[in-house]
Amino acid sequence: MITAVQISQLLQSAIVFGTVIMFGALGEILTQKSGNLNLGVPGIMYLGGIAGLAMSYFYEGHVEHPNGFVSLILSFIAAFAAAALGGLIYSFLTITLRANQNVTGLTLTIFGNGLANFFGGILNSMAGGVGQISVRTTSNAYRMSLAHFFKIGNLGKIFFSYGFMAYLAIIIAVVMYFFLNRTRTGLNLRSVGESPATADAAGINVIRYKYLATCIGAGISGLGGLYYTMDYIKGTWTTDSTIEALGWLAVALVIFATWRPLNAIWGSYLFGVLYWMYLYIPGLTRSSQEIFKMLPYIVTILVLLRVSMRKKREDQPPASLGLSYFREER
Amino acid sequence: MNHSHTHHEPLLRIAKRDPLPRSKAYAVRVIAVLISLLVSGIFIFSVTKLNPVAVYQSMFKGAYGTNRRMWVTIRDTMMLLCIALGLAPAFKMRFWNIGAEGQVLVGGIATAGLMRSLGASVPTPLLLIIMACASLICGAVWGMIPAIFKARWNANETLFTLMMNYIAIQLTSYCVALWENPFGSNSVGIINPKTQAGWFPKLFGQANGLNVVIVLLVTIGMYVYLKYSKQGYEIAVVGDSENTARYAGINVQWVTIRTMAISSAICGLAGFIAVSGASHTISTSTAGGQGFTAIIVAWLSQFNSFIMVLISLLIVSLQKGAVQIASQFNLNDYASSVITGIILFFILGSEFFINYRIIVRGKKGGDVK
Is ipTM > 0.90 here? Predict the structure, then answer.
């Protein structure tokens, strides 16, 4: 039978996993609220992850006694900035140059994946070989949790055994909820995503809203990559496509959450539980485990279908999602 | 950005321009590619301090240096081209089929499964036909699921087909674990290595000759289908305006499902070619991201089959060349994704200068950039 310890372990790994995709999804919610469907989330998460890692690697390498906290701040800023820069490329191409959003987003994913793994490979070989890079000081700073200070039981571990970014994700979700529902700027942003022509006529600077939402959204998504490299794989780099898979899961989570930041919180943890559950179900063979890992995607499809069949207005994607806005073509 | 809060005429204004003559439009694209190669060169130089010209030269050698390399490049170009051809009708209808990756995989799974089970009992020519049909059907079914929900309930196809990719990937992992050979290797291994049953036979003395023939037939077929058939015309009308299509008496739901079935069936066929005509095995990397790259190929070529050939060739040559510079200069071959990304960004951006013109303040009628 499943024991309390196992449940505690499952929930912990689900929350760590969920935090990665929650960042990705929150950033994408902000972006999509402006009407931009950015399929570059995986690429943006790659950019955030590698920028944070590279920054802390150079800091730790060039300073006599590296301070984890300073490195944390530097790498955090680097990750956010690199990811926002990815968002800027996307914004410039889709908003100013009016390129197709899907194609631009996918290109950004290819580009980000390539750039990150390219530099990741270089960093690894600079550090001495495959899988050699390690920024322990910084990673420890990221992973510092209350569990280090107190003796806490299984229940406590579920709540307190994470680095600060797990809580930051929740805070961003709550702030974004208030921003989108309670502030004028947030409501303006939503109107841009629903009907840019109407927003434009009402005197809202559509272009500026789209640019800012997409770049800041990309920055937030990039933090998911940072959390992945610093916390999830403990300040190392493996050249593989894990971040890409997580990035697509983040896009799935946006749909699952029906574009609501608060839903993204529990949704991401639920995805984490669904993802890791196979480890705790007795009698699964290696092949049937793989079937089990389909669950997050199947659940997302079911939510998508439910949303499109019920046609409840508040559950719909932003009405102009995926469409570029040209004032003179109204 | 426009300074719309001022009441003066903005410094730069954007206006739609009359269609450029085709030669000029292509000149813009070629210039974009050249600039992108320059930017990529700067990137290569700033990171590695290597002479970019030497790097491009060795990339060319990597893609075409030997007969064998050239055929690998051709083989992979055909694969990418086949997927892009499949995507073209769906995109022309403005149906965002992002699910090619999954459709290729289910086609590959069907092929690999039949190859394993029937390899000993069915002669290869017949087996090839059976596998081709099975991959077409599996691909079609995989793509029709989102199409039906789109047609009936207007479910967002971009997101639906994207999710179907990951279900297909897990399905592939499931089959790999099921068909593992040898046990514990976590791979299917080469199927029928001794008998070569179900493998593409050599054509013109080339192991991949048949790949080229099949895909070129699809290329011509798709060109004719989209340009000269009644169905191709229906696709174009639905893509331009669903309301117009409905007014003209076109059954939009049926056209959506039919087009998507054709689109994903061809992607399934690409899976058949990948398994039977190239790798002779199946893994989650059988599609290898080409399902996503093909989306860009199909879009950039504006659904013209023959331009797809050129763009596929360009991208695959870059990928093969990057593998070469990776080993020669001790880099890693993700450099190819970076360069591909930069080139695609520039081509995407260049479309703007084909469709719009920038008018500088004070100049009557505007000067054309």
Answer: no
